[in-house]
Amino acid sequence: MGAIVVAAGSSSRMNGLDKILAPLGGKPLLAWSVEALQKSPRIDRIVVVASQSNLETIHTLVKNQKWNKVVKVCQGGRRRQDSVIAGLKLVEDCEWIVIHDGARPFLTQDLINDGLEAAVESGAAVAAVPVTDTIKVADDNLRVVATPDRSYLWTVQTPQVFRFSIISQASRHSAGDVTDDAGLVEKTGVKVKLFRGSYGNIKITTPQDLAVAEILSKSYA
């Protein structure tokens, strides 16, 4: 089984800090997710998709950390799906592919295993947690037009696990922007299965997120 770590974001909300290489618990943020995949007996190859600005640094990191499952580090694209497509081109002979956001450091073996088991049902599965806040739908003037029943609402995370043939086909028809990889697959008519993620599986987007992650890292070390 192959894995793609998407780490090509612009870090636009990090006040000039490259979040993928930001220190977290004594090591770069990227190292957390790569090491989780490196330790998984179900993963045999990893591709890291990076931004042009940190390609060289990540190449050096892979070499120094002796991540022998990392077969390629490649440059990402303008959109998330462009980065995923770049990674897919470098993962060969895999029946299943795990796609994980490098900005989510607290990937666990349970999430990897649960994702693969859930994906067997339809060929596509994504980690998600139930929404805990009340959600409002607003119009362009910020007037509330609906309050959906939150019992049906889930916050989607990564990892997202796909049969390689399904995500590969979906990526070839990637017109328009999508915010997650399952969005590509949904457009092809494949039913995506949710599996239980973790509220600790946070995404680092702002300096405040990084501060919270520093506290959480003690539980995941």
Compact description:
With 221 residues, the protein is an alpha/beta fold. The protein has helices spanning 29-39, 55-65, 80-88, 109-122, 164-171, 181-186, 207-220, and strands at 2-7, 23-24, 27-28, 45-50, 70-75, 96-101, 124-130, 137-138, 144-146, 154-163, 193-196.
Question: What helical percentage do the residues reach?
Answer: 25-40%
| Number of E strands | 11
Q: How many individual helices?
A: 7
Average of pLDDT: 91
Question: What gap, in angstroms, lies between the N and C termini?
Answer: 25 Å
For the largest beta-sheet, the strand count, sense and barrel status come to: 7 strands, mixed
SS class = alpha/beta
Q: Globular, elongated, flat, extended or rod-shaped: what is the shape?
A: globular
Question: Within the largest sheet, what's the order of strands?
Answer: 5-4-1-6-10-7-11
**Low confidence ranges:** none
What is the N-to-C succession of helices and strands? EEEHEHEHEHEEEEHHEH
Tell me what portion of residues adopts beta-strand conformation.
15-25%
Q: Radius of gyration over alpha carbons?
A: 17 Å
